[in-house]
Structure formats: C-alpha cells, structure tokens
Design goal:
Helices cover about 50% and strands about 15% of the residues. By secondary structure, the chain is an alpha/beta fold. The protein has one domain: Glycerol-3-phosphate (1)-acyltransferase, CATH 3.40.1130. The radius of gyration is 17 Å and the shape is globular.
Amino acid sequence: MTRLVLVSIVIVPATIWYASKIAWSVYRRSAEMGCRCEEAARAWASLVLRVAGVRVIMENEGVIDSSSPQVLVTNHVSWIDVLVLAAFVPGRYVFVAKKEVERIPVFGAAVRACGHIYIDRGDRTRALASLDVAKKRLEEAAPTVIMFPEGTRSNTGELGSFKKGAFVLAIQTGASVVPAAIFGSRQVMKRGSFLINSGIVRVHFGELIQVGGYSMENRARLTHRAQEAVSELQKHYETS
C-alpha cells in the first residue's frame, strides 16, 4: 500500500512535468524536438518504473542499431510493456500505437506531439496512411519503429496471430526486423488494472531478420517467420 501511494504521488506530477516539456519543445518548433521528446519519455518512464520497484533486464539489446532502419516487433500483454521499451530501447525510436491510446488525457496528446504514430486498424485506408507516415519516419531519421503486431494486449499471455502491417513496412523500406519477447510484465501490471506491482521484467531480443528475398507477394512468410522467432524466444525463457 505504501508503494502504491508513492507511485500515485509521483506519477501524476511527473506526467504533467514531462508532458509540459514536450509541449514547450513543440511550441518552439525546435529542430531537436525529436531528441527532446525521447529524453523526456525515457526520463518519465524510468522514473515511474523505479518508483514502482520494477527492475528491467535487457538481453541481447546490441542488435538494436540506431544507424540503420529497423522494425522492432514484440509480444504485448500489459501497459507496462510500453514504459519498459520507452525507457530502455537504445537510440531513436517511434511507437506505432492503436488509435485508442490517443484518448488518454495528457499522455495521448504528448505521444502524438513527439511524432509517434496512431493506427486505426478498423479503417483500412487510415491504417495504410499511418504506415506511410511510419515509412517516412524510417526514411528520414532511421529510427527503430516499435510495433505490437498482435494488435492488442493478450488476455492470457499466449502469443496471438501477427498482423502484416509491420512486415509490409519492413519490406517497403528494407528495414531489418528485430523480434523480441517481453517476460514478467503481466505480473507487474495486470490487464484492466492501473496498479503497478514491484517485480522483474525481462526483454529478450532475437537475431535480426533481413528482409532481402521477401516481397509484398510473400509478406505472409515474413510475418510467419517473425511470429515464430518471438514464439521461440518465449519458449526458450519458459524452459530455461
């Protein structure tokens, strides 16, 4: 209970403070706005995790190369996944998030202001437009684009079927695909709850998947390969 009170006391003013920093950067139209946004996001996410008593362990994060375009795909079981990745993925990054996130007060607006991308999977035309924006981000700044290809959080922790959007993006841009698996986040923050429990979250990055040899005609093969890679990472952790 004491930790819950502490998290509550810290998270609200911290969110307002870092959102204000982002808003100020946007207002000034600074050329460094993207970097400032990432700095604010990292600081905010790191603070929330630290105060909540969440320890994050990254494995094989050296595969992330901020000098070349990459699409990071991972499983998604909890809101805490976003904080963990925002705090610890190295280099520049852009999230592609479902449209519903935009409705969250303060947070939703700050996410858009930082150049992260919302996708409306219920509207094919808008979804394709969002992927075009992500393509431009990769071509202009070569960040890591982070996507949750299941399209939503898993209720059970089981890996759901991957949608093809992330892999269409990778094929169109030539970006490498980075498979990753997140463990422990479901215990730290259960679906439907805003209570953050102390605990350990691990993020295990797999080996890069190069997209040479894949095309729009066989994009389903790339989708399947990436899903298998994430599934194998999960199995390796569960049996180790």
